[in-house]
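>> Question from a student workshop board

For tomorrow's exercise we were told to take the sequence and the ligand below, predict the bound structure, and bring the output to class. My setup keeps failing. Could a helper post the expected result so I can at least see what it should look like? The ligand is 1-deoxynojirimycin.
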Amino acid sequence: MRSFTTLSSKWTALLIIAALCYLFTPAVSVKHENFKTCDQSGFCKRNRQYADKATALGSQWEAPYRITPESLSWKNGQLQGTILKTINKQGETVRLPITISFLESGSARVTIDEEKRQKGEIELRHDSKARKERYNEAQSWAIVGGLDVSKSATEERDASRSIVKYGPEGKFQAVVTFAPFGIDFKRDDITQIKFNDRGLANLDHWRPKVDKPEPEKKEGEDAPAETPVAETGEDESTWWDETFGGNTDSKAKGPESVAIDITFPGYEHVFGIPEHAGSLPLKETRQSSGNHQDPYRLYNADVFEYIMDSPMTLYGSIPFMQAHKKDSTVGVFWLNAAEMWIDVIKEKEAHNPLSLGIGSKTDTKTHWFSESGLIDVFVFLGPTAKEVTKAYGELTGYTQLPQEFSIAYHQCRWNYNTDEDVKDVDRKMSKHQIPYDVIWLDIEYTDDKQYFTWDPLQFPNPTGMLEQLDQSERKLVAIIDPHIKNKDGYHIVEELKKKDLAVHNKDGNIYEGWCWPGSSHWVDCFNPAAIKWWISLFKYDAFKGSASNLFIWNDMNEPSVFNGPETTMPKDNLHHGNWEHRDVHNINGMTFHNATYQAMLERKKGEIRRPFVLTRSFYAGSQRLGAMWTGDNQASWDHLAAGFPMILNNGIAGFPFAGADVGGFFGNPEKDLLTRWYQAGAFYPFFRGHAHIDTRRREPYLIGEPYTPIITQALRLRYALLPAWYTAFHEASVDGTPIIRPHYFVYPGDEAGFDLDDQFFVGSTGLLAKPVVTEKAESVDIYLPDDEIYYDYFDYEKYTGQGKVTVPAPLEKIPLLMQGGHIIPRKDRPRRSSGLMKWDPYTLVIVLGKSGSATGELYVDDGETFDYQQGAYIHRTFEFSNGVLESKDIGTKGKLTDKYLKTMKSVGVEKLIIIGAPKEWAEKTSVKAGREEARLEYYAEEGKKAAWAVVKAPKVAIGENWKIEF
Ligand code: NOJ
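>> Workshop helper replied:
Here is what the output should look like for this input. Compare the format with yours to find the bug.
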């Protein structure tokens, strides 16, 4: 006992020192070694060993899971039954209830639980107060719809399997094999996804701990180190407790991991499962060199200074994967909130002698394992990526349609030091005519890291500051984190404790740990009462000094705990309902984000605005609540390059409102790096410059010639294209289509482009961008997917022919092409903020394709309220063909449509730019716009530069039907 106390106090001292080091030198203290590798994670290692054993035995391997046919019943689109797991040589079994649901949407869901835990027939160790069941509430946080079961699905069964036909026109099939248990999902009779094909399904059933006699030891000698072995011969060294980095996790419920293998036959590419710093196509994790050694890990953590090209976990988790091959995409969503790992391997299918010379194909074989919870997997059979993303979004919700300001530029650093500092930056941005919409305050604005307060010396007048910003329709975002400073007299912590709304430790007392404020408690947003309380804190009269142009940033919500295991909370902490933190960890950040979102919805009765809340930690469903960013990157070229694959991956995993810190968080970027980063950032759906407290100031006007003007151009480009960006956000908000789109998503049949993750399309605009992410580049190669005409965005130089083209990219130029056949809406008048552009007229850029025609879309609303839900919006298509440009309404009329259209009556089109204008127009001087004539100027082709024309002041309103004849 004495030695334990000494050890524990020594550890406490060490941890405090470690925490202090983190506080003062954050850029150097957290390292890769602070996070587990698979070998250091008990259940990861076990499940990999299990896979190795099964693989080594090959056809001799007897997977110990089988469905008992007599247990099966089919009712209302659901197949229910029991899986028996054989647990020893004597043939003893445990019962695992399984439900396979076939949903109206065409998705299927497989849920496997454990009867004993479900019924609470287990004993917990250490007098634990934890819940006995496997965590079954992930659905209530992640899923918001799409669960209606199919009315048309049908089932047929024989002695060895059950076959369910479901989906559109019954095109999908699930073939459930009883022994060993397995499911093949088919589309048009071809197997697309296989469950338990390799027999790696594994569910750690509950068992009592059998205490063995202590090994004998001679006096004065240490006991021999022995790996504890269970009666079954399994290594039980991490079943009952697990130690890492000096923290011991008491596992009151024993081992409880769940696993299954999922094979995608014939699919060579898999994407998704963010968040990792690596390529868009996922790499193999168990094969030869050059690939990853560890599985992809999802365990939300504060991993700053993260390393590149790594399967290591980061701040957020979306366990949704898409598998893609030529003209077919399918997907799976593993609904589980515990720590998880995913192994990916690829195997060539054996050459089929009957395939008449067609070469062998590759299967991607994945192996998923979570530390606890249910096996709960959704299956999407596509066949397109768009359909898979849409079906996933039907379940977890689509991207929130954001306030328009939030898709403009954000100016942040840790920290703007005083309210005068904020006002000064604001004035200087205006003086230098650099547009921005939002300035941010990091943690130092608070009084002693107490959220909902202002430092009285540095921020004596927040209201004055907010008022100045409002004069240019600008906003402020202030940070509020989930750790609440444990300090006497701080009213928030006192209420938190009094109302008992904080996360508890394993003994049921309020958990205490370290974060920015020092000793802190964590609000438990799994608790409805905590959410209610949190909402009350944001009312204008509670959060004094806040106003309607103040929005919120939620950081550190993994949660980050400086002295916790792997910089987070102990897994045996308890949340509302006595769920262990282990069970809910990956959802934790989303619950905090959700509480803040709810709070922002109605800070004042009757004043309902769309919230804007940025989050660092996220899970499936977070897209409904705001934006995310990729955390603490570095001011280096490789981090600049890493941004796009990460953002693209987030986009196809349903959370496209994403960005990376422009300029890099740690370190001081060279001027060319910073400039290139702004050019890249202009293509992030979430566009924010941010920097660590130890870095030099780098507001765009400080950088000097020629950089400041180039950065300003990049910012103005973003502002000019805001109508196109907002239209893309609208699309994402109705069907989940990513805002920036990877090649495979847009060209699913073009195998040569499946690996591309450094060029992308912006919405449906036909804009094809490849911002420079390498040092000293003078040009970049862009891959053209088809033989359409592509025009340089800035000088209209033409590029044609499928394959690579080289586009010049001196520092002042962003490689950006316009694909023929599109119409791009813009606003060309430079302003201080997007709010000031609200009533500005539009420019339509008509990019003529080979066929001489083009189409495009525009979505507009007030950019801040929810009135669009009652029809207060404009949604139009523009079509140019046979010399006529036509604007057509594609919106649905609602209660507020007419009122909104009235407010937009005077907003018109000021300019049409026609790129690739036909030669015959050379003599043309006007076009017919309704009853009026508008002037046309023609510019002939010059070398490789396309001919173009401009029509000035066609005097047509943006919200009305019209035709312009050329
Ligand atoms: C960590 C965040 O990732 C970073 O962006 C922020 O500046 C610091 N916390 C301080 O709040």
